[in-house]
Amino acid sequence: xxxxxxxxxxxxxxxxxxxxxxxxxxxxxxxxxxxxxxxxxxxxxxxxxxxxxxxxxxxxxxxxxxxxxxxxxxxxxxxxxxxxxxxxxxxxxxxxxxxxxxxxxxxxxxxxxxxxxxxxxxxxxxxxxxxxxxxxxxxxxxxxxxxxxxxxxxxxxxxxxxxxxxxxxxxxxxxxxxxxxxxxxxxxxxxxxxxxxxxxxxxxxxxxxxxxxxxxxxxxxxxxxxxxxxxxxxxxxxxxxxxxxxxxxxxxxxxxxxxxxxxxxxxxxxxxxxxxxxxxxxxxxxxxxxxxxxxxxxxxxxxxxxxxxxxxxxxxxxxxxxxxxxxxxxxxxxxxxxxxxxxxxxxxxxxxxxxxxxxxxxxxxxxxxxxxxxx
Length: 375
Ligand code: CND
Ligand code: ZN
Ligand code: ZN
Known about the structure:
globular, Quinone Oxidoreductase, Chain A, domain 1, alpha/beta, binds 5-beta-D-ribofuranosylnicotinamide adenine dinucleotide, Rossmann fold, six-stranded parallel β-sheet, single chain
């Protein structure tokens, strides 16, 4: 029997308090309104940004259903939806692409003005939520809320992908892979023969390494305090790995010395002020480009002396690897299907959705790269 037009009762992982486990609860998911789509989740990755909400460094209204890296199948569509239909395989986009705002119309910009990152209202665009639990509203997160068997998204926040794509792998294209890979190939525009350093070798950082390699970098130095990450980093393209704790000198000095005064491209993929400064200072003072990928706690600022940039350094940052989401995700999936890059090295654990707390513990303990939750 069709569920279209009806409220669906299903399980979701609800975060009710900071620093507490998720509770798996039965929620009601209202039908999609105009220009919205209800999606049955198939697979969802756990990204550090979700954990930033749990630990309070990325504030968003509670109670909330988190999750922003996933893949699923369209269950039903609201009025006016033309680009997806029931049964289509889709990837939710935590940065939408409305195709009408000044950013979408700009040839380079990807941070669509309809994004939910800046407002963090915890609703869809019309200011309301499609989730309730025992009669009370549950908030959305980034317009995606993928830690639920069903979720409702705006049409502009969905990419239709190849029907043959394995959703338990390509879910990573919804955040980690694209964010990292794009930061190298699209944001930094890594050049053949160049030197690169990547601070933080989690799922996003390793994807930066993959992007640097694909762009033809000659040296890719991975930096992490957890040496267990080094083997995987080498497997995906790092030529050297080092831990800041192995030297009495600041790591930026060590890296700069290794690379003739400074690297061409550096990436911060952790979300800390000190490592953002290290990444900036180890890129060459005259031509280095440093890209901020990590999401820093909202309350902190960089101690940035302007003199660090006067010689010609560039400091930049990007969301979702600078990719225009709806245009790029189907192409990235096609490139995965054509074996242009692999996602398997990033997936260290697969767990049933109900074990989401175990998945977060693995991340916090530094034991996983990406855990994929299956529904
Ligand atoms: P994950 O936690 O898997 O990786 C971070 C890595 O950094 C781990 O391997 C840590 O061991 C390492 N690390 C921690 N502290 C230090 C330190 N002081 N020095 C060196 N290494 C350290 O996280 P992830 O890969 O899922 O995400 C990385 C960051 O990217 C995180 O801040 C997340 O919020 C952010 C992000 C950004 C975007 C975007 O669009 N810009 C999208 N998703 C995630
Ligand atoms: Zn993410
Ligand atoms: Zn837009």
